[in-house]
Amino acid sequence: MVSLVFAGASAVILTGAMLVITVPSIFVAALGLVASLSGIAVIYILLDADFLAAAQFMIYVGGIAVLILFAVMLTGQINRASTINRLMPLAILISVITFFGIAYGITREGWRYLEAEDVLLPMVGSSSREGRYLADILFNDFLLPFELAGILLLVATIAALVIAREK
Amino acid sequence: MVTLEHYLILSLALFSIGLVGSLYRKNVVIILMSIEIMLNGINLSLVAFSRYLIPNELVGHIFVLFIFTIAAVEVAIALAILMVIFYKKNSINSSDLNLLKW
What we know:
The structure holds 2 protein chains of 2 kinds. By secondary structure, chain A is mainly alpha-helical. Chain A has 2 domains: 1-84, NADH-ubiquinone/plastoquinone oxidoreductase chain 6, subunit NuoJ (Four Helix Bundle (Hemerythrin (Met), subunit A), Up-down Bundle), CATH 1.20.120; 124-167. Chain A has helices at residues 2-22, 26-46, 50-75, 88-108, 127-140, 143-164. In chain A, helix 1 runs antiparallel to helix 2. Chain B has 3 helices and no strands. Chain B starts with a helix and ends in a 13-residue tail after the last helix. Chain B has helices spanning 4-24, 28-52, 59-89. Chain B has one domain (4-95): Helix Hairpins. By secondary structure, chain B is mostly helical. In chain B, 50% of the residues are buried. The chains are: A mainly alpha, B mainly alpha. Chains A and B meet through helix 1, helix 2, helix 3, helix 4 and helix 5 of A and helix 1, helix 2 and helix 3 of B.
């Protein structure tokens, strides 16, 4: 069951990602991005990260993807003969080298871990407890980064308004 | 049977796709989307590591939450800059943004 869901979700994720980088139309690419991000939320549920799955849906699918779609609509479709630059073979070569290099390292490393089916999660058995524990460490150990993230969001909001303002 | 390697290979594939997209596409919006895909690949690997290697501490989840914040900030600023460029040059192709090119 888990393998089936994993296979389906990864097929959706990779297809969406390939759509983003291959299709000339920006709108289709944005829809592919939405599909890809939703698939990742499913993967988070498989990894017992229910809170992150909800956050992924709300922030990425609901926020960032809509923001990008909005920008696509505002800038309009500009038809050009070529949407890719002339360094495409080099780019693919770099990416393939990266992929196989790191994949070699991943498969060689002997990971010692708990299997997914093992029920050995005293702290994170259910989604409600995951949220509670997450809040616990977020507001104790990571309080300063949390506050800084809030300030960063405020600064970014003001900066985006100032930059995009009509002169 | 899904193991840690499966999640890591999936995250690596996402990262590689985002890398090639951000390198060879001309449209700045597509480049931004590719960067989002790369960030999501990284998030996936962090959650998988957290789930399999230290399942009793959710530190990987905390990192992912902060990456969410940074990604939202990055997209907001980048799209604002994009709007200004579009109004000035009527184009969002990276090959037209050659003012600083020597």
